[in-house]
């Protein structure tokens, strides 16, 4: 990309065309931006950030353009950007609202493998989305405990057990199956037959790598799938609950709030 702008210059060009709230954490770990794009403006200009950041699409949608990749990002999606990485984020639906976490250099010194850990967390785990939503929830609560809660959630982003590169191959195969067939009933024996690993072995070692049971992990997948449905589909919340494999809306609401900090109806209104 030619004539790539630093982040500050990019935002100056778009002043008045988007709303932005900025929250700085007291220990100088990160800055959180909650931005709403109201019109196209110059959002298609290539720009970069001096520090790595995550952006979670709360509402609307955009085209994420990078050096060799172009992808549509809709509500419920989380993006990772390396420090200095040129990119374009072209809003296609207005208003588009997203929350971004930009990590400071001091945080790098405390966490030397920060960029690699963040990238793995975003691309390989479900927890990253839930952590960002919980951070956004804490910003809304904004009580005397919020700063501590946000600090813990930031650390969770870079300490996921799924970042373990030494996990056995069959674990990766199980994750692939669970994500590809998330809307099907899959038993422990089904996974054992596909992976040629004894069911007891799966039950014993799965929590070691994911800090949850197989059933809990499947529930997380279903909640993650519901994020975009809540925002972009015309289905009722009850219909979404059934679509995602929950036996009633109450069960769905409880699981959703536990993982994201929001009730489905609250998330729908953001």
- Count of all domains: 2
Find the count of extended strands (DSSP E, 2+ residues).
8
CATH top level of the largest domain?
Mainly Beta
Low-confidence stretches: none
Structural Rg: 19 Å
Q: What is the CATH architecture annotation of the largest domain? A: Sandwich
Average pLDDT level: 87
Largest sheet: 6 strands, antiparallel
CATH topology of the largest domain: Jelly Rolls
Q: Give the overall form.
A: globular
Number of helices: 12
Secondary-structure-based class equals alpha+beta
CATH superfamily of the largest domain: Jelly Rolls
First CA to last CA: what distance?
A: 34 Å
Q: Encode the helix/strand succession as letters.
A: EHEEEEEEEHHHHHHHHHHH
Percent of residues in helices: 40-55%
Characterize the structure shown.
The protein has 270 residues and is of the alpha+beta class. It folds into 2 domains: 5-162, Jelly Rolls (Sandwich), CATH 2.60.120.10; 166-269, Arc Repressor Mutant, subunit A (Orthogonal Bundle), CATH 1.10.10.60. It contains 12 helices and 8 strands. It has helices at residues 7-13, 105-110, 114-124, 127-141, 146-157, 169-180, 188-195, 199-210, 214-232, 237-243, 249-260, 264-269; strands spanning 5-6, 18-24, 30-37, 47-48, 53-65, 70-74, 78-81, 88-103. The strands form 2 sheets. Strands 2, 3, 5, 6, 7 and 8 form a 6-stranded antiparallel β-sheet that branches. The chain has a two-stranded parallel sheet with strand order 1-4. Strand 2 and strand 3 form a beta hairpin. It starts with a strand and ends with a helix. The model has no long low-confidence stretch (mean pLDDT 87).
């Amino acid at each position: 990309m030619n004539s790539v702008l630093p982040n500050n210059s990019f935002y100056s060009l778009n002043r008045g065309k988007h709303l932005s709230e900025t929250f700085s954490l007291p220990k100088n770990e990160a800055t959180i931006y909650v931005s709403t794009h109201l019109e196209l403006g110059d959002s298609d200009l290539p720009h970069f950030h001096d520090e790595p950041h995550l952006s979670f699409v709360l509402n609307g949608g955009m085209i994420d353009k990078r050096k060799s990749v172009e992808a549509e990002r809709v509500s419920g999606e989380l993006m990772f950007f390396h420090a200095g990485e040129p990119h374009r984020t072209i809003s296609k639906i207005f208003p588009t609202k997203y929350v971004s976490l930009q990590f400071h250099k001091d945080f790098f010194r405390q966490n030397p493998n920060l960029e690699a850990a963040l990238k793995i967390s975003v691309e390989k785990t479900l927890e990253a989305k839930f952590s960002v939503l919980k951070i956004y929830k804490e910003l809304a609560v904004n009580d005397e405990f919020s700063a501590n809660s946000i600090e813990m959630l930031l650390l969770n982003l870079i300490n996921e057990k799924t970042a373990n590169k030494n996990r056995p191959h069959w674990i990766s195969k199980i994750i692939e199956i669970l994500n590809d067939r998330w809307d099907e009933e899959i038993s422990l024996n089904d996974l054992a037959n596909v992976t040629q690993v004894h069911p007891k072995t799966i039950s014993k070692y799965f929590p070691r790598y994911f800090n949850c049971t197989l059933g809990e992990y499947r529930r997380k997948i279903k909640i993650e799938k519901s994020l975009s449905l809540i925002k972009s589909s015309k289905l009722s919340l009850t219909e979404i609950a059934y679509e995602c494999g929950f036996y009633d809306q109450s069960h769905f609401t409880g699981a959703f709030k536990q993982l994201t900090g929001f009730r489905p109806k609250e998330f729908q209104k953001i």
